[in-house]
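Subject: Re: docking follow-up (flavin mononucleotide)

Dear J.,

Thanks for your patience while I sorted out the input files. As discussed at Tuesday's group meeting, I've set up the holo structure prediction with flavin mononucleotide included as the bound ligand rather than trying to dock it afterwards. The sequence and the ligand SMILES I used are pasted below, so you can double-check that they match what you have on your end before we go further.
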Amino acid sequence: MTCISVVYHSQSGRCAAIAQRVQQGVSSVADCRVYRALDADLNVWLESDAVLLVAAENSASLAGEFKAFLDRTLYPFYEHGGVAMAAMLICAGNDGRGAQAQFERIAKGFPLKLIAATEIVLGEPNVRSLAHAFDWGQALTEGVKMGIF
Ligand SMILES: Cc1cc2nc3c(=O)[nH]c(=O)nc-3n(C[C@H](O)[C@H](O)[C@H](O)COP(=O)(O)O)c2cc1C
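The structure tokens for the complex came back this morning:
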């Protein structure tokens, strides 16, 4: 059985709304586990066929609480060995490129195999971005199930 995890951090609720739609997209075709980044640990990487990440850009970087999840699991994961499949969706007010660059740099160190280009959702979630989040979760999960990554 395919297991996909969604790990997110949200301050205002915007990322939480996007992550919820991602989770619904994943759940439409596979088992889905959802973790707040504050609660997530090494096991998320080890138990999941792929990890879908949702967090905001804060001050031109990844939101601190989300980056803390990557920071505290990087060395344990590195010592464990292997590669985890992941994709990242960044929520941002008007940019997002700083967080994207930071995430993609960190992903090389893990190492993570990025199964999709990092996406940026600008502004408040709306009907279109929420629908896209659902499709993003569903399509990536289908890809994992089919073994195309
Ligand atoms: C402290 C702070 C810093 C922010 N810095 C940026 C930034 O550098 N670039 C940007 O595009 N948006 C920035 N934003 C906007 C957030 O990325 C955006 O509102 C996002 O949707 C917030 O999601 P969340 O509240 O669910 O974490 C910032 C917001 C806060 C609160």
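A couple of observations from a first look. The radius of gyration is 14 Å. Residues 3-146 form a domain with the Rossmann fold fold (CATH 3.40.50.360).

Let me know if you'd like me to rerun anything.

Best regards,
T.
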